[in-house]
């Protein structure tokens, strides 16, 4: 599915911007000649066959803008436009986006570098000034990068900054704990790493289309095998509460980082 616009200015070519560009091109949503990249240096990022210019020039030429710069760089964008402006900047509110760009047609989203492989979950929320066409653009754009959902309130974006933005941060932390346990039991580090990677690869694929995570857990508990013993111990521990504390800390930071 191609995007319902002629050209998109993607402003910010760091890790997230590059992966979003790669995902849009790979999915066929935008051919390279319809994607204008922009950064402060005007230097093309390696491996992307798109024209690269300055943010102001890209904003002047494109039909819509997607801001992927770090929140600290937002005040230096130097953009004034009435066009639709989509943003993946953590913590930068809809009101602040209007202040920075002059546009009332602003949409705030959260995505992740998994967008390059079409695996991101990129929810978004729109300001009152955004039109139905603007929201349709956001839905099409973020669907090309994985899956998306329009949220009923802006406050919820901060939660997704914690649970979908940091791929694979929180999952990698749990995987690290599994690997360290195996190594402590005498397993060679390279074998422990290979097993851990396969565990999380298989788990991710199974949960992507099968039952919900809670149902997977209950299935294993009901089977009453070795995994059930481990899961019962985890259920009896404070680990779920500690994970929630970590996510809450990330969400709280999202409210102030912008």
Automatic annotation (TrEMBL):
Subcellular location: Cytoplasm
One BP annotation, GO: L-proline biosynthetic process
Pathway stated in the Swiss-Prot or TrEMBL entry: Amino-acid biosynthesis; L-proline biosynthesis; L-proline from L-glutamate 5-semialdehyde: step 1/1
Molecular functions per Gene Ontology: pyrroline-5-carboxylate reductase activity
Residue ranges constituting the Pyrroline-5-carboxylate reductase dimerisation domain according to the UniProt record: 154-256
Residue ranges annotated for the Pyrroline-5-carboxylate reductase catalytic N-terminal domain, each copy included: 8-77
UniProt-listed Gene3D superfamilies: NAD(P)-binding Rossmann-like Domain, ProC C-terminal domain-like
InterPro entries linked to this entry: 6-PGluconate_DH-like_C_sf, NAD(P)-bd_dom_sf, P5C_Rdtase_cat_N, P5CR_dimer, Pyrroline-COOH_reductase
Catalytic activity field: L-proline + NAD(+) = (S)-1-pyrroline-5-carboxylate + NADH + 2 H(+); L-proline + NADP(+) = (S)-1-pyrroline-5-carboxylate + NADPH + 2 H(+)
Keyword NADP: yes
Key words of the record: Amino-acid biosynthesis, Cytoplasm, NADP, Oxidoreductase, Proline biosynthesis
Residues noted as binding NADP(+) in the record, renumbered to the chain: 11-16
Superkingdom of the organism of origin: Bacteria
E.C. no: 1.5.1.2
GO cellular component, one term: cytoplasm
Family (UniProt): Belongs to the pyrroline-5-carboxylate reductase family.
Entries under PANTHER family matching the protein: PYRROLINE-5-CARBOXYLATE REDUCTASE, PYRROLINE-5-CARBOXYLATE REDUCTASE 3
Protein's name in the database: Pyrroline-5-carboxylate reductase
């Amino acid at each position: 599915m191609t995007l319902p616009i002629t050209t998109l200015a993607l402003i910010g070519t760091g890790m997230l911007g590059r992966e979003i560009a790669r995902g849009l091109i790979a999915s066929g949503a935008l051919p390279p000649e319809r994607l204008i990249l922009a950064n402060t240096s005007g230097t093309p990022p390696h491996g992307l066959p798109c024209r690269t210019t300055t943010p102001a020039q890209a904003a002047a030429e494109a039909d819509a803008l997607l801001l992927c710069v770090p929140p600290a760089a937002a005040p230096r964008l130097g953009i004034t436009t009435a066009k639709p402006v989509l943003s993946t900047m953590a913590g930068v509110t809809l009101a602040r986006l209007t202040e920075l760009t002059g546009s009332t047609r602003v949409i705030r989203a959260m995505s992740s570098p998994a967008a390059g492989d079409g695996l991101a979950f990129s929810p978004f929320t729109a300001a009152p000034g955004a039109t139905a066409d603007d929201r349709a653009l956001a839905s099409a754009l973020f669907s090309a990068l994985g899956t998306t959902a329009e949220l009923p309130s802006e406050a919820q974006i901060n939660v997704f900054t914690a649970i979908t933005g940091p791929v694979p941060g929180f999952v990698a932390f749990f995987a690290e704990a599994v690997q360290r346990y195996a190594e402590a039991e005498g397993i060679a580090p390279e074998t422990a790493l290979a097993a851990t990677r396969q565990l999380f690869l298989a788990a991710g694929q199974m949960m992507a289309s099968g039952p919900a995570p809670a149902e997977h857990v209950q299935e294993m508990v009901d089977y009453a095998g070795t995994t059930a013993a481990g899961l019962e111990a985890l259920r009896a521990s404070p680990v779920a509460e500690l994970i929630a504390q970590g996510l809450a800390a990330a969400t709280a930071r999202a409210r102030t980082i912008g």
